[in-house]
Amino acid sequence: MTTITARFLLNRGRDRLSAEELDALEQAFDAPKTLPPRRTIIERGDEIGVSTFLLEGVMSRHLDDQDGYRQLFGLHIAGDFFDLHALPLRHLDHDVATITECVVATIPRDRGIALLERYPNLAMMMWYATMLDAAMHREWIFRLGRLSAIGRVAQFFCETEARLRATGLGDDDAVPLPINQTDVAEACGLTPVHVNRVLRTLREEGLLTFRSGTVRIEDRARLYRRGEFDDRYLYLDKPAA
Amino acid sequence: MTTITARFLLNRGRDRLSAEELDALEQAFDAPKTLPPRRTIIERGDEIGVSTFLLEGVMSRHLDDQDGYRQLFGLHIAGDFFDLHALPLRHLDHDVATITECVVATIPRDRGIALLERYPNLAMMMWYATMLDAAMHREWIFRLGRLSAIGRVAQFFCETEARLRATGLGDDDAVPLPINQTDVAEACGLTPVHVNRVLRTLREEGLLTFRSGTVRIEDRARLYRRGEFDDRYLYLDKPAA
DNA sequence: CGGCTTGTTGACCTAATTCAACCACGGTGG
DNA sequence: CCACCGTGGTTGAATTAGGTCAACAAGCCG
Lengths: 241, 241
Fold this sequence. Notes:
The structure is a homodimer. The first copy, chain A, is of the alpha+beta class. Chain A has helices at about 20-30, 110-120, 120-145, 150-165, 180-190, 190-205, 220-225, and strands at about 35, 40, 50-55, 60-65, 70-75, 80, 95-100, 100-110, 175, 210, 215. In chain A, helix 4 packs across helix 5 (about 180-190) and helix 4 (about 150-165) crosses helix 7. The model of chain A has no long low-confidence stretch (mean pLDDT about 95). Chain A binds a DNA duplex through helix 6.
């Protein structure tokens, strides 16, 4: 039987939750729903009444600037539990949208709070998850502020591939990542045209291929160096490198 | 009498703490210490045994790239309580340093955990503070990914000025911010030379003057527009605009 | 088959970097 | 008291990474 939280904090501290705590969390969710691709789910300023658990698919958090160009703040993959903001913050400061079709389970605010009050250790783990988010955000700041276009794209794929693998996706060879080059551009603060050129370079240099929604890291050591990637900030229980 | 936590979450949810909780927090700190300017306090990978409260001064969190160029992730000002990471994360993924001379009070890990277990509401507020950090990080990502040099510098000063005012610093006219142009460059992902040119432009356009450690916003409405700044993400109890 | 999305490539342009020189100011020591 | 020095700020000229604009190709779906 497939459980909702099967991937929650997998390889990232999940072990610190007891079976009872996990079960309580599991029970708190409403029945999973399917969301269509490329749909905005929450808009900046919305009052949010639920936290969301992503079972399948890819989602983005982002904000559009005055000219309609979009900046991603992060990508959500299966196993991410988000909008924990719903609890103390109440309204959101950015948009959330699906990229692919997604399956999500939500937990209403009140029920979430009751859960945390009953299981303080669960609250600790939510806080921990928030810190992991903040650590990822810092890496994105570093990427945008200090890396060249090639470095940015390299780093983006290093991080995303590592996260996907951490939740048990992908085989030895390749990892599925069903997003397009425009999404990558919006994550890396580049234009889609330039991302295209950068991807060609990375391919020609034998570091990475990204084609039809699949990432294949050809030379991990060199790619990591190119993207100044060091996976410590992901706090993986079992790092890849 | 000056208390350590006088500025903690001032104008940012402080009201949600009871007098007893604040007092318990207050008692938990070791005696304040003074740190010299431009000194690295914690380095990436260090095991951190304490959380730190900043009473006076300015500190930075940052990471240096392969060529020694630095990217700031955030500026700490009086009233910030940080390295809450110490509790669940144990080791740090970036550096922390003083910019000016600073006065700090620390709280050892074990004592902090005991405190949170006894006062769940205090734990909630720490979590809340972590979320505010994450919200600020997102704004920095947006700044670096989508704004021009002028927009970035404008936005940086909008945010920093708003935060300083929120903790009660500055008068109607100007706000003290004792950092230099290189610090601004490291925050905005620009070169110091270019920051200098941008500051001249902002001055000439009558939007902002930043000189000898003092920020003076000349035309708030226009500056906010230039920096695409919207202070909602700061979750201020009393927004300025 | 035609239309839509996504990816690819070329030519040109501009914002920001780089490199280098110089200035202003405060502090220190002779 | 002034010479010196270090830090931080300012300006100019040349260079380049990445953006912009525009056209076209490949794949997919109805």
